């Protein structure tokens, strides 16, 4: 999922929990910064709600660096960065476009 979004669900929230509450909780508890358009909360049963999180890599990278910056792996400290994949370039050349409009019963073209 290079440069993409991680889709995560938080289960068993209290009914009526708002997206703003989830965003605030994630920021205050672990420093994960999400925009309101990346969080959706829905009451799913009579007893609980679920939150759908769409976490972009640009929000996850600082979190990983903050929590793992002093945790060596094989004796080395590491740093996280967002992976930028090369997107293939597509080129299309158009010589001509033909459009046919339908005609009514009298043979007159409708626009």
Key traits:
single chain, about 110 residues, alpha+beta, three-stranded antiparallel β-sheet, 2 helices, about 20% helix
Tell me what the structure shows.
The model has no long low-confidence stretch (mean pLDDT 86). With 111 residues, the chain is of the alpha+beta class. It is 22% helix and 20% strand. A 3-stranded antiparallel β-sheet has the order 1-3-2. The longest helix has 12 residues, at 19-30. The protein has a domain at 5-68. Strand 2 (39-43) and strand 3 form a beta hairpin. It contains 2 helices and 3 strands, in the order E-H-E-E-H.
Please identify the oligomeric state. Answer: single chain
Helix-strand pattern: EHEEH
- Beta content comes to 15-25%
- Please count the beta strands (DSSP E, at least 2 residues each): 3
Computed Rg: 24 Å
The low-confidence parts are none
> Average pLDDT, to the nearest integer?
86
Approximate shape: flat
Q: Which percent bin holds the helix content?
A: 10-25%
Task: Provide the structure class.
Answer: alpha+beta
**Biggest sheet overview:** 3 strands, antiparallel
Q: What is the end-to-end distance?
A: 44 Å
The DSSP helix count reads: 2
Strand line-up across the major sheet: 1-3-2
Write the layout of secondary structure elements.
Elements: E1 5-13, H1 19-30, E2 39-43, E3 49-56, H2 57-68
Antiparallel strand pairs: 1-3, 2-3
Outline of the structure:
The protein has 111 residues and is α+β, with helices and mostly antiparallel strands. Helix content is 22%, strand content 20%. Strand 2 and strand 3 (49-56) form a beta hairpin.
């Amino acid at each position: 999922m290079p440069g993409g979004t991680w889709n995560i669900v938080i289960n068993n929230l209290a009914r009526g929990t708002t997206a703003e509450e989830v965003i605030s909780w994630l920021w205050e508890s672990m420093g994960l910064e999400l925009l309101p358009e990346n969080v959706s909360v829905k009451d799913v049963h009579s007893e609980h709600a679920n939150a759908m999180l769409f976490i972009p890599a640009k929000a996850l990278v600082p979190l990983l660096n903050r929590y793992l910056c002093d945790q060596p792996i094989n004796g080395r400290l590491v740093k996280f960065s967002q992976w930028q994949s090369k997107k293939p370039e597509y080129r299309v050349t158009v010589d001509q476009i033909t459009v046919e409009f339908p005609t009514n019963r009298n043979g007159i073209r409708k626009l």
